[in-house]
Specification:
Elements: E1 9-15, H1 22-34, E2 40-46, H2 53-57, E3 64-67, H3 74-84, E4 89-92, H4 104-111, E5 117-122, H5 129-145, E6 158-161, H6 178-184, E7 189-194, H7 208-227, H8 231-258, H9 269-301
Parallel strand pairs: 1-2, 1-4, 2-3, 5-7
Antiparallel strand pairs: 4-6, 5-6
Helix pairs in contact: 5-7, 8-9
């Protein structure tokens, strides 16, 4: 792909079995993007569709189509789109026509108030009640565990500055947590209400498996954010606590036995005390090994445990 430096907007759209929706969405996007009178690009990522979506995408112009060999999921599709995008600003939205392209100017206007990411907030959602209930529960859990400080991280309609994705790789179901990841990296995040339309064509790809995968990814993200550069703080602390508890308990049992206060022949407490000591030592050693592995990884990958916004030199 030819590299260009003059593109203002890049629109990234993951699409999986959305044959009836991609052409109307492309038409709506063109009306909005042409109003800026600046170069833009529309990137569709065909995520292994089996319903003719790719054939419909081949009819569109202007467009860039990234065609996956099979279905890899929305996170991988977004990651591929981010890596291909060349615009100053990157806009994401779903291919199902439930996000309204007419909301894009408001997102960009808000971004120019000094933010790095502006997320859409679907205040009035047109989804089945079951999906709304699951989303509310997931949002509450997300706020408690990762705390991205927005109401609707699951809304794909967002605008980002391109630098947000420098040295950022996405996998699993991490697309829901992009605002949290960027907030942890020091970027300024906000949200504004956006319209949400009913799905007319196609079926939703949301099911219970995505909920489970999202929860596991949330836990992984929590650990990575807090302890990725210092796993010894987690494993070492847990190991020391277990070792201390096991040692103190064992000493107390020995003292009580010496004074014939208790008989330990038929008691499980000595075994539990020894188990705590052994588990604590194992956790502590695991923390040391993890700390060495993490530091070696960052050194080999050339990554730093911090982000630099800019450097100013004044004479």
């Amino acid at each position: 792909m030819e590299q260009r430096n003059d593109i203002f907007l890049s629109v990234v759209i993951p699409a999986f079995n959305e044959a009836e929706n991609v052409a109307p969405l492309h038409e709506q996007l063109l009306k909005v993007l042409k109003s800026y009178n600046r170069p833009f690009e529309i990137i569709f990522v065909n995520d292994g569709s089996t319903d003719g979506t790719f054939l419909e995408l081949q009819k569109l112009k202007p467009v860039t189509v990234i065609n996956f060999r099979r279905n890899y999921g929305q996170t991988s599709a977004l990651d591929a789109g981010f890596k291909a995008a060349q615009g100053e600003l990157i806009i994401t939205l779903d291919a199902d026509l439930q996000n309204d392209p007419d909301d894009i100017p408001a997102l960009i206007k808000k971004l120019h108030e000094g933010y790095d990411v502006v997320s859409g907030w679907r205040v009035d959602r047109h989804d089945p009640n079951s999906k709304k209930i699951i989303s509310r529960g997931a949002n509450w859990l997300r706020q408690y565990i990762v705390s991205d400080e927005i109401h609707d991280s699951g809304c794909t309609l967002k605008v980002y500055r391109k630098e947000c994705f420098q040295d950022l790789d996405l996998a699993g179901e991490m697309h829901r947590f992009i605002p949290a990841i960027l907030r942890w990296r020091g970027f300024k995040i906000t949200e504004i209400p956006v319209k949400h339309r009913e799905r007319i064509h196609g079926i939703t790809k949301y099911d219970w498996r995505r909920v489970v995968k999202g929860f596991l990814d949330m836990l992984s993200l929590w650990f990575w954010n807090r302890y990725a550069t210092r796993p010894i703080h987690l494993f070492g602390t847990a190991g020391l606590v277990l070792t201390f508890v096991g040692t103190v308990t064992l000493i107390l049992l020995l003292i009580l036995r010496l004074f014939n206060v208790v008989y330990l022949a038929d008691k499980i407490w000595p075994l539990l005390s020894v188990l705590c000591i052994l588990a604590g030592l194992q956790l502590f050693v695991s923390g040391l090994l993890a700390d060495i592995a993490v530091k070696s990884y960052h050194k080999q990958a050339g990554q730093k445990p911090y982000q630099v916004r800019n450097i100013e030199v004044r004479d």
